[in-house]
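Notebook p. 47: complex prediction with zinc ion.
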Amino acid sequence: MYQRFANLNLEALYGIPAMCPVTNCQAQMSPLEMLAHLMMRHSPQDSMIEIAEDVPKQYEVDIDKLTPGRNHSIGVIAYEGAPKPGLSCAVTSDLQIVHHLPIILMLYVSPPILNTEQAYILYLVSAVPSSLVSANVTLLDGFHAHEKRGWRCLRNSLDSPLMDSQNRLYCNTDYLLYTATDIRELCLSGEQRRIFVKIVLHGEPDPFQVDA
Ligand SMILES: [Zn+2]
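Predicted complex, structure tokens below:
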């Protein structure tokens, strides 16, 4: 399975631009630049959605609007961890970065190559590679009837092997691979080729944590 996608250079995904997800902003830049752009150029309430620990969030994706060879920002999350009375507050113009970990949920679609199946790669980008925060990411069909487990979890070759068996994604470290066949199976019903990306975040964000 993985051999078929051995030609994918996962770390190179960080150099591929994505379009800014904010309406009417045409800016295009790499995922980490996008994170800085979203925090400095846009109001948090225009660009981010606050999500608490263990609360599922779904993002609709129109498959036909994805551009092969490009990154796509599927969702921008202000992750708050477990709700903390008195500290947590909704995402407002003065987002408390102290209490939230901004994360971009990215989707890369590989370009079509003869005799090679296209890959759809989901990954999480944050300013700090927090080992305290992880996520379960799965795909759902347009009717929420079928859920495909994201078991094809690949890890950045520079990082240590996966320790847990739950196939959780860690920011800036893991990549979740789906094939064009997986996507086709999810799009079998319905005229519009649309799927949902479901994310459930776990752990306590600490924006000041720096991994040793
Ligand atoms: Zn923008």
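Notes: The mean pLDDT is 84. DSSP finds three helices and 13 strands in the chain.
Next step: compare against the earlier run before touching the bench.
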